[in-house]
Automatic annotation (TrEMBL):
<keyword id="KW-0378">Hydrolase</keyword>
<dbReference type="InterPro" id="IPR050266">
    <property type="entry name" value="AB_hydrolase_sf"/>
</dbReference>
<dbReference type="InterPro" id="IPR000639">
    <property type="entry name" value="Epox_hydrolase-like"/>
</dbReference>
<dbReference type="Pfam" id="PF12697">
    <property type="entry name" value="Abhydrolase_6"/>
</dbReference>
<dbReference type="InterPro" id="IPR000073">
    <property type="entry name" value="AB_hydrolase_1"/>
</dbReference>
<dbReference type="GO" id="GO:0016020">
    <property type="term" value="C:membrane"/>
</dbReference>
<feature type="domain" description="AB hydrolase-1">
    <location>
        <begin position="32"/>
        <end position="266"/>
    </location>
</feature>
<dbReference type="GO" id="GO:0016787">
    <property type="term" value="F:hydrolase activity"/>
</dbReference>
<protein>
    <submittedName>
        <fullName>Alpha/beta-hydrolase</fullName>
    </submittedName>
</protein>
<dbReference type="InterPro" id="IPR029058">
    <property type="entry name" value="AB_hydrolase_fold"/>
</dbReference>
Length: 285
């Protein structure tokens, strides 16, 4: 049965994490999961939903402390490894006896990091990856690590509005006579970050640079993967996507968008084209 209006549900993992998710498309079709980045939510993917294949069961997930997923009281619950474990549990719960095997994942920023980790853990399960503004562990990069730790501390001291104001700059680029960011896109990012739980935001900043967060064995990833990179993305430059592409074990390529770190908001046509190419590759294998 096809769902045209996304339905809202919750799943509690075996670890006790309560995940909110939206489901749309064909309930009995293969799974297509969308994972947001730091400060995002299921809303990140709203502009993209009309362009996703209707024969898939499309699932949009809120990470803990973002969107409608509550933050667990225990202070050590947010880590990249725990996100991957919860995703593994969640996907297993979604795979009914008549459900086609395999899953396609679209991840933005941190969501792309989690998707890559999961794809290395379960290469037999992942059938395709669309990785927007993808990154890797910054735990071993002192300047990047300190930046994230300082951001976590500032959010705890000044509130999440500090991060929201910063995101309107860091997710975009300095204006020039030829090009400037859309104020509506900047406001959308600001509002998204403002909606986040401040402690969840701070803990997630710390998780992204935690020494326990290491890059996976990218060569284990054999599914087709498209890296979607903004030509003016200062958070995850095109070169980072190119480096990741070279590490992937299967077919992969980079599509460059006319955007900063928010390609869905700034270049939806480019993102749509990149994802269409991914599904063409999936369907040809």
């Amino acid at each position: 049965m096809a769902i045209t209006t996304p339905t809202s549900s919750y799943h509690t993992t075996t670890r006790g994490t309560k995940l909110h998710y939206l489901q749309t498309g064909n309930q009995t079709g293969p799974l297509l999961l969308c994972l947001h980045g730091l400060g995002g939510s299921t809303d990140t993917f709203n502009p993209l939903l009309p362009y996703l294949p209707s024969d898939y069961s499309t699932i949009l997930v809120d990470f803990p402390g973002f969107g409608k997923s509550p933050l667990t009281a225990s202070p050590n619950t947010i880590s990249i490894a725990n996100h991957v474990a919860d995703l593994d549990d969640f996907i297993t719960s979604l795979q009914g006896p008549s459900q086609p095997r395999g899953v396609v994942i679209i991840g933005h920023s941190m969501g792309a990091i989690v998707a890559l980790q999961y794809a290395a853990l379960r290469p037999e399960t992942v059938k395709g990856l669309a990785l927007l503004g993808a990154g890797r562990s910054a735990a071993g990069i002192p300047a990047a690590k300190q930046r994230m730790l300082d951001l976590a501390a500032a959010v705890r001291e000044k509130g999440v509005a500090f991060a929201a104001d910063l995101a309107t700059k860091s997710n975009f680029y300095e204006p020039t006579p030829e090009r400037k960011a859309d104020p509506k896109a900047q406001e959308a990012v600001r509002n998204a970050v403002l909606a986040a739980d401040p402690e969840a935001y701070a803990r997630t900043c710390e998780a992204l640079v935690d020494p326990e967060h290491k890059d996976p064995k990218y060569e284990l990833i054999v599914a087709p993967a498209v890296f979607v990179a903004g030509d003016k993305d200062v958070i995850s430059p095109v070169e980072r996507s190119q480096g990741l592409r070279e590490s992937i074990g299967g077919k992969s390529w980079v599509e460059v968008m006319k955007s900063g770190h928010q390609p869905i908001l700034e270049d939806i046509e480019g993102v749509k084209s990149a994802i269409n190419k991914l599904f063409e590759s999936i369907n040809s294998t």
